[in-house]
């Protein structure tokens, strides 16, 4: 179990952020493996790729580039931003000129699972529920998706 205090009278906000295990792990990410498991409304399969990081204070941008593991040579790209604000870890999707906060995780950890504060992200009529966990050098972000258009799960393994 990893535990830490977010508020400390002796440390600056930057020192507190940098002492968080999740923040340390996010700064070391280089690869991504995505497993998509859909019952309806999406392509199932595995993607493998790389992550280019841009660090800026309490923000890390992930530029993700992946390919399907099915000989189709189809490539995908994604841009995500992780921010720390007070005792919250915010995950945003950067789409062209629009930034959408997808998930907010409170930085309270138990059994390597982070408490999710605003768990549901709605895309049209589908609900996306995130789960975030740490294991050794891996960060796992899982989205459970349910709705009229999509039903399934997307698992992102960052390492």
The strand line-up of the biggest sheet is: 7-6-5-4-3-2-1-11-10-9-8
Listing every helix as H and every strand as E from the N terminus to the C terminus, the arrangement reads HHEEEEEEEEEEE
- By CATH, the topology is Lipocalin
Count of domain modules: 1
CATH uppermost class: Mainly Beta
Main sheet: strands, sense, barrel = 11 strands, antiparallel
Q: Find the count of extended strands (DSSP E, 2+ residues).
A: 11
Report the portion of residues in β strands. over 45%
CATH superfamily placement: Calycin beta-barrel core domain
Q: How would you sum up the global shape? A: globular
- CATH 2nd-level architecture: Beta Barrel
pLDDT averaged residue by residue:
80
**What gyration radius follows from the Cα positions, in whole Å?**
16 Å
Please estimate the helix content. under 10%
The computed structural class is mainly beta
> Spans with pLDDT under 50 lasting ≥5 residues?
1-16
Q: End-to-end span in angstroms?
A: 19 Å
Characterization of the model:
The protein is mostly beta strands. It has a single domain (13-158), classed as Lipocalin. 8% of the residues lie in helices and 63% in strands. It contains two helices and eleven strands; from the N terminus they run ααβββββββββββ. The chain has an eleven-stranded antiparallel sheet. The longest helix has 6 residues, at 13-18. The radius of gyration is 16 Å and the shape is globular. The model is unreliable at 1-16 (pLDDT under 50).
């Amino acid at each position: 179990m990893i535990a830490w205090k977010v508020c400390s009278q002796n440390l600056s906000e930057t020192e507190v952020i940098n002492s968080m295990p999740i923040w340390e792990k996010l700064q070391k990410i280089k690869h991504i493996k995505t497993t998509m498991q859909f019952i309806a409304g999406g392509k199932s399969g595995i993607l493998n790729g790389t992550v280019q990081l841009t660090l800026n204070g309490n923000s890390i941008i992930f530029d993700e580039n992946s390919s399907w593991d099915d000989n189709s040579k189809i490539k995908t790209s994604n841009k995500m931003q992780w921010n720390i604000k007070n005792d919250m870890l915010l995950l945003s999707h950067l789409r062209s000129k629009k930034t959408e906060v997808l998930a907010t995780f409170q930085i309270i950890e138990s059994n390597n699972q982070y408490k999710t504060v605003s768990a549901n992200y709605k895309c049209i009529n589908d609900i996306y529920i995130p789960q975030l966990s740490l294991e050794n050098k891996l960060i796992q972000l899982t989205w459970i998706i349910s709705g009229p258009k999509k039903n399934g799960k997307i698992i992102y393994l960052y390492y």
